């Protein structure tokens, strides 16, 4: 029953979720800068310098520094080679690993302070890490140390890393076999010990780490991962998405929980609408800071989710979670791990509660309290999405990475814009409207599906970077000039773009002095654009006419240049409407018919979108008589020929 409801819901979302425009790789109209270089591969880990002028890229056997100070430019500044020796590669292959994977795939790249980066790579299934001086960025900056526990051995295993006050927080697989995972702190400063969370029952059950976020106002690092659930013991191998937390001031216990987290707590992160099946597998998470002046609790965490069940496996959804709600859940009640059977969770008596799990400062607590938090760390409540629902459900796209920003429209309203990377290699730009999500455009960023890829949004630069095995791509968040007239500019509903009446062009809001025309919420071009064409005679008489000479009795095909995939395309002929026994309108919007005396005349292709109709093309067809057959055929026969013609091409 729940499933039927879910499928019904997915179906209803389908129509509005077609991207309005599509830009294939290399197509004009949408500026995309591509970086790739011979001998440089797997450019998948991205880090922007503090001054936003340099993009560091963790690649295969190297770390690159790219100059990105100018918009639309990505130039290699320097490159640090960092490869395993032939001997180390040999050792890797003798252990049964594929030679292709016995490289050093750089998977951790973090900024420690103003002068140093910290990088870790898989190093032929024997991870290594190194400090890198950003000023003398050269091969001599690699001084490798053991990277076990900080970086996966296998380049296809996911991991997460984040720095807070120069200390490194990681979630990763930490052995060669791939069956041990941990959440740890390394590079601990001020004489503190490194901490971890590992094999103890119930802490982590076969997790896959997705992301992490340091929230300074809370003094906490949040981790996001999936794991096998033990609390739902009525479903076998049920995967749950989790948010976990640790406090940055944790120092570990003195006897109990020595060198281990005393502030670890975890909760289910549930992306679910009403009573439908949850989309239970988190793929990526993005932390959107609160609007200016709003409290930290208004921080939103946007996650992309997919499903474990085959019935819904081609679908994905976006859910937003409020930090304030996550804090409430962690401050609430907890399950207790059964001491005899660690796969069982019990609901304890509230009188048994002697400590607040997840509370910062726990490392100073007495042993009995530490023993308590050691078995009470899973919250009873789940974290549920804002507005109790899904921000977006895509029935046919598997989204895998997400970034988000808030931007102010011309009327002062703030809109959230999501950037979603699809498995098939497109970047979807989505604006969240009251009525639901609207996909402004999709831009192809890689050609082959990529198992490892990352997305990095820089608001100050106004660009999105995507790193994959095909290279690094830089995409400006908007490209207003690609909208050729006021209607297109308004119908796009891009909050970054507005129509500038003075210059008669679609431009970035910040570049328009006054009189900006924009309607993000409604996209009502008929109302806000002057010289509206949507009146009684939509086939505009001012439109330039294209002449077309054809032979009588030959099949004619008129193409209609299509701007928007959300528009409905229709044709008008010499007598207005087009009888279906003479004309065929094809799926790509083109019109086909047989040239006869009757079908001569002026045709115009119209696009109707969001209640606004505009002329896309006007073609005048003149037929000249050369054929012998001309007047013999009737309309029915003509149409048959059109059909035969169409099945042949
Ligand atoms: C770099 O970007 C960050 C985040 O977008 C911003 O806060 C900062 O002001 C920028 N720095 C410079 C020098 O542009
Ligand atoms: C940055 O960190 C590195 C490595 O710990 C250290 O050697 C260096 O002195 C630090 N630089 C500053 C400016 O603190
Ligand atoms: C590295 O790139 C190659 C293609 O260039 C790809 O086949 C391989 O899967 C990538 N490996 C990783 C770990 O990303």
CATH hierarchy: architecture of one domain: 7 Propeller
Molecular shape: elongated
In total, how many beta strands?
41
- Name the CATH homologous superfamily of one domain: YVTN repeat-like/Quinoprotein amine dehydrogenase
Keywords: Disulfide bond, Glycoprotein, Membrane, Signal
Subcellular location: Membrane
InterPro entries: Ig-like_dom, Ig-like_fold, Plexin_repeat, PSI, Semap_dom, Semap_dom_sf, Semaphorin, WD40/YVTN_repeat-like_dom_sf
GO biological process, one term: semaphorin-plexin signaling pathway
SSE inventory with pairings:
Layout: H1 2-13, E1 21-23, E2 33-35, E3 45-48, E4 54-58, E5 62-67, E6 75-81, H2 86-94, E7 106-111, E8 116-121, E9 128-133, E10 145-146, E11 160-164, E12 167-173, E13 181-186, E14 195-197, E15 208-215, E16 220-228, E17 239-247, E18 265-268, E19 281-288, E20 300-306, E21 316-322, H3 323-330, E22 334-337, E23 345-346, H4 367-375, E24 378-379, E25 392-394, E26 399-408, E27 414-422, E28 426-433, E29 436-444, E30 454-458, E31 463-468, E32 471-476, H5 486-491, E33 497-500, E34 505-508, H6 525-528, E35 545-551, E36 555-558, E37 568-572, E38 583-585, E39 591-594, E40 601-609, E41 612-624, H7 635-648
Parallel strand pairs: 1-29, 35-41
Antiparallel strand pairs: 2-32, 3-4, 4-5, 5-6, 7-8, 8-9, 9-10, 11-12, 12-13, 13-14, 15-16, 16-17, 17-18, 19-20, 20-21, 21-25, 22-23, 22-24, 26-27, 27-28, 28-29, 30-31, 31-32, 33-34, 36-39, 37-40, 38-39, 40-41
The chain binds 2-acetamido-2-deoxy-beta-D-glucopyranose (NAG) (3 copies).
């Amino acid at each position: 029953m729940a499933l039927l409801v879910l499928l019904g819901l997915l179906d209803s979302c389908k129509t509005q979720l077609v991207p309005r425009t599509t830009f294939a790789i290399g197509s004009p109209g949408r500026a995309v800068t591509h970086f790739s270089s011979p001998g440089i591969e797997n450019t998948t880990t991205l880090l922007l310098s503090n001054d936003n002028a340099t993009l560091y890229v963790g690649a295969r056997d190297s770390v690159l520094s790219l100059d990105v100070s100018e918009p639309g430019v990505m130039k290699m500044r320097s490159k640090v080679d960092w490869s395993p020796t032939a001997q180390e590669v040999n050792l890797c292959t003798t252990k049964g690993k594929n030679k292709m994977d016995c490289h050093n795939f750089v998977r951790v790249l973090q900024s420690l302070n103003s002068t140093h980066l910290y990088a870790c790579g898989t190093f032929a299934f024997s991870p290594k890490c190194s400090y890198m001086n950003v000023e003398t960025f050269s091969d001599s900056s690699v001084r490798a140390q053991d990277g076990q526990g900080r970086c996966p051995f296998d380049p296809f295993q996911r991991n997460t890393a984040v720095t807070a006050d120069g200390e490194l927080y990681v979630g990763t697989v930490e052995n060669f076999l791939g069956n041990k995972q941990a959440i740890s702190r390394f590079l601990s400063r001020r004489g503190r010990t490194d901490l971890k969370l590992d094999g103890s029952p119930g802490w982590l059950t076969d997790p896959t780490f997705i992301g992490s976020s340091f929230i300074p106002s809370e003094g906490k690092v949040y981790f996001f991962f999936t794991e096998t659930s033990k609390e739902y013991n009525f479903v076998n191998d049920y995967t749950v998405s989790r948010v976990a937390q640790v406090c940055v001031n944790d120092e570990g216990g003195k006897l109990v929980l020595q060198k281990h987290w005393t502030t670890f707590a975890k909760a289910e992160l549930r992306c679910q609408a009403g009573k439908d099946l949850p989309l239970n597998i988190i793929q990526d998470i993005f932390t959107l800071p609160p609007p200016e002046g709003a409290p930290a609790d208004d921080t939103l965490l946007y996650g992309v989710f997919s499903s474990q069940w085959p019935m819904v496996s081609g679908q994905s959804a976006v859910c937003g979670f409020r930090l304030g709600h996550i804090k409430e859940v962690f401050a609430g009640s907890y399950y207790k791990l059964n001491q005899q059977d660690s796969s069982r969770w019990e609901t304890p008596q509230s009188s048994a509660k002697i400590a607040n799990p997840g509370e910062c400062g726990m490392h100073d607590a007495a042993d009995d309290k530490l023993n308590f938090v050691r078995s009470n760390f899973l919250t009873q409540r789940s974290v549920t999405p804002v507005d109790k629902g899904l921000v977006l459900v895509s029935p046919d796209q598997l989204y895998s990475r997400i970034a988000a920003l808030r931007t102010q429209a011309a009327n002062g309203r703030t809109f959230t814009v999501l950037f979603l990377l699809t498995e098939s290699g497109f970047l979807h730009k989505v604006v969240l409207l009251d009525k639901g999500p609207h996909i402004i455009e999709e831009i192809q960023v890689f050609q082959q599906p990529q198992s490892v890829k990352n997305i990095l949004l820089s608001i100050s630069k106004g660009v999105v970077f995507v790193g994959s095995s095909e290279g690094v791509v830089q995409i400006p968040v908007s490209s207003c000039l690609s909208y050729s007239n006021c209607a297109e500019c308004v119908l796009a509903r891009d909050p970054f773009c507005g129509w500038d009446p003075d210059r008669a062009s679609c431009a970035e809001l910040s570049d328009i002095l006054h009189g900006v025309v924009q309607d993000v919420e409604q996209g009502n071009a008929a109302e806000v654009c002057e010289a509206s064409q949507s009146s009684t005679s939509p086939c505009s008489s001012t439109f330039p006419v294209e002449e077309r000479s054809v032979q009588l009795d030959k099949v004619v095909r008129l193409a209609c240049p299509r701007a928007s995939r959300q528009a409905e395309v229709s044709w008008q002929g010499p007598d207005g409407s087009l009888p279906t026994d003479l004309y065929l309108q094809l799926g790509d919007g083109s019109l086909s018919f047989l040239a006869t005396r009757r079908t001569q005349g002026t045709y115009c292709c119209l696009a109707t979108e969001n209640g606004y109709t505009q002329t896309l093309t006007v073609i005048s067809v003149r037929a000249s008589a050369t054929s012998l057959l001309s007047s013999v055929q009737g309309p029915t026969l003509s149409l048959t020929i059109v059909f035969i013609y169409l099945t042949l091409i």
